[in-house]
Write a structure and sequence with these properties.
Layout: E1 7-13, E2 19-26, H1 31-41, E3 56-60, E4 63-65, E5 85-92, H2 98-109
Parallel strand pairs: 1-5
Antiparallel strand pairs: 1-2, 3-4, 3-5
Domain UBL3-like ubiquitin: 6-115
Main location: membrane
Pfam families: Rad60-SLD_2
Length: 117
């Protein structure tokens, strides 16, 4: 099979054990594109879904996948099972609000310690 036509069946396992997919992706597909696909297919009945690609971490084979690598680059021996479906784990981590960050930094700056002898 030529590399341009090769496809992988991937399903995305959510934290509650449910799945999105499986869906075929060309091996040239990058991780960011798969994350966009997850956002578009996120179940409507689940709360706290991801809003942007930055809110999602994909884990495969015990590794967190970077947005710029392709499916082909993160392949391992488990991907070479003919007709098999690869499972990637999805972790949603919404970014902390800027307000929360500011409050945390302000509370650290307002602390002082004095010792009177």
């Amino acid at each position: 099979m030529s590399g341009a036509q090769e496809q992988l069946e991937i399903k995305f396992r959510l934290i509650d054990g449910s799945d999105i997919g499986p869906k075929s992706f060309p091996i040239a597909t990058n991780v960011a594109t798969m994350k966009e696909n997850i956002i578009s297919q996120w179940p409507k009945d689940k709360q706290n879904g991801p809003l942007t690609v930055k809110d999602i971490k994909l884990i495969s084979g015990g590794r967190i996948l970077e947005n710029n690598i392709t499916v082909g680059e993160c392949r391992g021996p488990l991907y070479d099972i003919p007709g098999g479906v690869t499972t990637m784990h999805v972790v949603v981590q919404p970014p902390t609000m800027e307000k929360e960050k500011k409050m945390l930094s302000d509370s650290k700056q307002n602390k002082c310690g004095c010792v009177i002898l």
